[in-house]
Amino acid sequence: MVRRLLPLSGIVFVVGVLVGIAGIGGNTPDIKSSATKITSFYGAHHSKQTLAVYVVFWATPFVIFFAASVAAALWSGGSIRENVWQLVLIGGSVVTAAGFLIAAGIHYALADGGNQHLPGTTMQALNALDADTYFVFVGGLGIMMLGAAGSMIRRTDAYRWFGWAALVVGIGIFTPVGFVAMLLSALWIILASLMGFRNRLLVAPALPQPA
């Protein structure tokens, strides 16, 4: 049962990250904000921002579970050379997870710093790091998308079209339209999760019939 549900990990990851960052975290001070504004904001919203961190923290492992389920579904059974793109897919998910965990850790330091009344200059430095960790986890998503593209494009079933979409999104992440591509990657993960779950249902072993 657990293996059958594994493809849905991608949906858990996307929903968790969106709820944590956009739903709970909301608008936070930007990189140009004054030390007073940053310290005041995180002092007043310590509990809310800490909750946002934990939601993202809990959701992060699911991106690796999702990538592993996709790689397993696409694994050819041959040598590592024949499955190199599946390994890139998994590797990209690990980089993505690491990026989100780093971002969560920095944001937690901000929330805790506001509650502990850290010096304003320290809060400004943490806030700058918090704003600029974007490249770490988005870069990981790009690698994951390119790994998915390489794994899927060579197929002849529905995965092929997902592969071409992943290629466009993966390349887009490393261009000036990276933010839009990142949003599209979230949609891709949700759709790929649903397709993977559907395929697992179709190939699920039949239950033994009563004698």
Layout of helices and strands, plus pairs?
Layout (H helix, E strand, L loop, with lengths): L1 H4 L3 H17 L9 H10 L1 H14 L1 H14 L9 H33 L3 H13 L1 H19 L6 H15 L4 H25 L9
Q: Mind explaining what this structure looks like?
A:
The chain has ten helices and no strands. By secondary structure, the protein is mainly α. α5 packs across α10 (about 180-200). It is elongated, with a radius of gyration of 20 Å.
In short:
With 211 residues, the protein is mainly alpha-helical. The chain has helices at 2-5, 9-25, 35-44, 46-59, 61-74, 84-116, 120-132, 134-152, 159-173, 178-202. Helices cover 78% and strands 0% of the residues.
